[in-house]
Amino acid sequence: MIFAHTAQQASDALSGIFSPNKRALRQAARVMIACGMTYALIHVLALEQGFWAIVTVLIVMQGVSVGATIGAATDRLIATIAGAVLGGAALLVTPQGMVATGISLVVVTGLCAFAAMRTSRLRVAGITAAIVMLTRTPEIPVTVFVVDRILEIGLGGVIGVICSRLILPTRSRKELITRLKSVIEATRDMLETHAKALESGQAGSAVEAGIALRKSLTAAEGLQADVRRERSAFMAKHGVSDAIPRTLWRIRNDIMHINRLDETPFRPFVAEKVGKPAAGVLRAEAEFIRRCGQALEEDHAVDRSEDDIAMKQFEQAFADFSQSEDVREIPFEQVGRLFGLAFALRKMRQDFHDLADRIDESYRV
Fold first, then answer.
1. Which of 82, 118, 143, 191 could in theory staple to 125 by disulfide, Cβ–Cβ 3.0 to 4.6 A?
2. Threshold 0.85, pTM exceeds
3. Mean pLDDT over all residues of the chain?
4. CA-based angle 95:101:105, to the nearest 5?
């Protein structure tokens, strides 16, 4: 009995230590195994400067997901080939001597920097070119030295991808869906904030939340490229439609439009007759985007039951108010904002339908 209680306490303690750090521990295990494999291989293959393979493993495995590692390894290999060939060509045509080598080095690194500004995947080409030009010894032929550097860095990239794929792999699609879920939760919170403001007739503002949402969407778009790499490498059955982040951007812009419209409160009788139905639409949209997130996570079609009830109620309330004498009692500026609110809600409804369609497309692929 005492032993069982002690064992349970130890298990709970270990769980408390490891659970919050599970992601970091998995990544550490992948990198350790990859470095060990690379170290063993460079000795088996007797690579003269095999440390570049280990450096490459550490660089390409900075991305946690398989797709990120594939992208980093591909970019690293392309930049290595470009830099090594350019550096090797410079060595072949440059006379021996400190001044001539220095001038050649300046020209080559300048060309690489220009290329890197035009194509980001060539960022390390200049580093490779400089290494080739400065570390090659006279007794080693230039072509042999260049090929060895390419092979060493290629070896590191291949090992990095294999270890990311086989050792506790983290899929980019899962990472992207997690990120999109956080975007959806933030969107729900913004919708609820504006619903409360419209219902109560108070000013509503969610500018800071909108900025945070923009950052999350930008990060999600970056993960989308990793998902495409996994699909192209046949490491994922299906991805996430590129249109989903774009549609979430439009919804975010719709909400920011509403934010500008209700920064100044409407008059109490306007809030009572139109604000409350508008708040009902926002709450219905908050529930709808929750179902969209659930469908995305669980990989099924979006539930569209009771989809347009709140919008129909708002349209009726808005039509009744716009044809009543009450509309004459509010300033022209508020009339403009009221019609702007109706337009924004209709536009947002269309964008939510579009989001559901894009999620359904990803589910069917």
1. 82
2. no
3. 80
4. 135
Cβ atoms of 132 and 49 within 8 Å: the answer is no
Ramachandran region of residue 94, left (φ > 0), alpha (ψ -120 to 50) or beta? beta
- Using alpha carbons, select from 102, 110, 109, 154 the residue that is nearest to residue 129: 109
98 plus 195 within the same structural domain: no
Could you tell me how far CA 350 lies from the centroid of its own chain? 25
Instruction: Report the number of distinct structural domains present in the chain.
Output: 2
Query: What pLDDT digit, counting tens, does each position of 176-194 carry?
Result: 788 888 888 888 888 888 8
Distance from C-alpha of 201 to C-alpha of 247, rounded to nearest angstrom? 29
Token digits of residue 9: 């306490």
Give residue 1's pLDDT: 44
Buried b / exposed e over 227-258, threshold 16 CB at 10 Å, is bbbbbeeebbeebbbeebbebbbbbbbbbbbb
260 shares a domain with 241:
yes
pLDDT, tens only, 301-327? 888 876 678 888 888 888 888 888 777
> 187: helix, coil or strand?
helix
- Per-residue model confidence (pLDDT) at position 351: 92
Domain that holds residue 238: 172-364
Are the C-beta atoms of residues 115 and 122 closer than 8 Å to each other? yes
